[in-house]
Amino acid sequence: MSKIAPPPGVSDIFPDEAPAWLEIETAARKVFGLYGFGELRTPIFEFTEVFQRGLGGETEVVQKEMYTFEDRGGRSLTLRPEGTAGVMRALAATDAANGVEHRVFYMGPMFRGERPAAGRKRQFHQVGVENVGRAASPGLDAEAIAMLCHFLNEIGISDFELHINTRGVQSDRPAAEQALAEHFRPHLAEMCEDCRARIDRNVWRILDCKQACCRQFVETAPDPAQFFSAESRDYFKKVCDLLTEQGIKFTVDPRLVRGLDYYVHTVFELTHTGLGAQNAIAGGGRYELLLPELKKPIPGVGFAAGMERLLIARDSLGVKPPLPQVPKLYLASLGDAAQAFNTALAAKLRHADVSVAIDYDAKSMKSQMRAADRMKAEYVLVVGDTELEAKSAKLKRMADGQEIPVGLTLDGIISALNTDSAQS
Ligand code: HAM
Fold it and tell me: Which are the contacts of 352, defined by CB distance < 8 A and separation ≥ 6?
């Protein structure tokens, strides 16, 4: 395996790709800000227990996918596989634990040891939102979904599909679990090995199974919501009504359980056809998270969208990424005196917010012009002894080769650049 390539499932993001990332991150900050959310930056690793307790020991992520290691002090630490548990850990020390609402968003890398595939990475990036502390309310759930749709529209993705469902509350589940187990048990011999283990450990996970041998039985399974209390069903109906009132289209999918155990009531997932098998661009829901040292779980609702998948979806729609920044001006030098002059000029121009490229060990004019071309500089200013003596030079507009006479002063160059850029 090449030592130059990054490990499997991990990528570099080069300067020509970064502007598209920044554009999405900027849109996220703008939209989340409109709903009163502020940024919370949590650590990239946490005590392993935060995720074990937070996400649930039976989840695929905790059982198979976490990057867990022991530090030099013998503590078990884990690279965050998602953002919610860390956010809750941070907010647990605040009045969020006493029912006060906190609105936060986050963005950054997450780590899961999954099999790499298109749109499935081991280091991937999420932008996410959590509304934490306030007691469950259909209004907050619908607002989270509306905000996610708003954000996607803002970045040019409007043809997504929104699937929603209810997971009820803990007390709703035993009756539904019994019905599901009764439905699947006669077919276990035909089902995958994982589902055979899931039936007793966590029967809900079977509804998530993608194997063809299991899908046929998943499709005929009873809708768990029919076993939930009237309060839970009414809660979900209110969420659906609020979405409809806002003109948000959705499909109720009784099989949608989501992969993390902390969810209660509303869960949702957004898919996009521009992606292959990994077609979920975002997911979320209402949750109750129990963390180490807390006596009772803290309520919240939120979502996370996968940056890599948002980029694939935008690509598939032909949304053009922003152009990488190019130098406004390339300073070409002929001779030592010009090199010294240009070096000082470059510093002054940059402090005046003009992006400048320069070769400090300039050799031939040809190689400097080639460099200016490669960097796609908008203008080139050639300075040699003659120009220094005359205190004037020519600014070459690279798009069409037009030459503009310019005085060799900071103000002269800046005003020529501004005037010509405004005209062309
Ligand atoms: P999740 O569904 O596990 O939820 O992840 C959210 C999104 O992250 C997915 O829809 C997908 O776009 C992206 N994603 C997940 N795994 C990968 C991967 N291996 N490679 C690339 N992208 C990936 C959560 O993480 C919850 N914390 C969401 C949430 C917030 N629920 C409530 N609040």
Answer: 410, 414
pTM score > 0.90 for this model?
yes
- CA 29, 111, 148, 228 dihedral sign is negative
Write the DSSP assignment of 308-371 as a string of letters.
HHHHHHHHHTTPPPPPPP--SEEEEE-SHHHHHHHHHHHHHHHHTT--EEE-TT---HHHHHHH
Pocket-forming residues, ligand 1, beta carbon under 6 Å: 82-84, 112, 114, 119-121, 124, 126, 128, 130, 259, 280-285, 287, 302-306, 308-309
The CA 204 to ligand 1 mean position distance, Å, reads 18
Which candidate, 290, 175, 289, places its Cα nearest to that of 233?
Answer: 175
Q: Is the pLDDT of residue 1 over 80?
A: no
pLDDT digits (tens, 9 = 90+) for 153-166: 999 999 999 999 99
Task: Name residue 332's amino acid.
Answer: A
When the pLDDT of each residue in the chain is averaged and rounded to a whole number, the result is 95
d(CA 268, CA 153): 17
Question: Mind giving me the DSSP string for 194-232?
Answer: HHHHHHHH-THHHHT---HHHHHHHHTS--GGGGS-HHH
% the chain with pLDDT above 70: 100
Q: Is residue 114 scored above 80 in pLDDT?
A: yes
Calpha distance 172→227 (Å, rounded)? 7
Which two structure tokens, joined as six digits, stand for 113?
Answer: 């040891």
In this structure, are residues 325 and 20 in contact, taking their beta carbons and an 8 Å threshold?
no
Paired sense of beta strands 379-383 and 329-333, if any: parallel
Amino acid code (one letter) for 27: A
Beta-carbon neighbour count of residue 259 at 10 Å? 17
3-state secondary structure of 289: strand
Distance CA 318, CA 271 (A): 17
Q: Which of ligand 1's atoms lies nearest the C-alpha of 126?
A: 8
Q: Which residues contact 337 (CB under 8 A, 6 or more apart)?
A: 385, 388
Contact 164, 178 (CB under 8 A): no
pLDDT computed for residue 208 by the predictor = 87
Which tokens hold the place of 241? Answer: 């009504």
pLDDT band for position 2 (50/70/90)? confident
Our mutation pick for probing the ligand 1 site, out of 89, 110, 281, counting the most ligand atoms within 8 A of Cβ, is 110
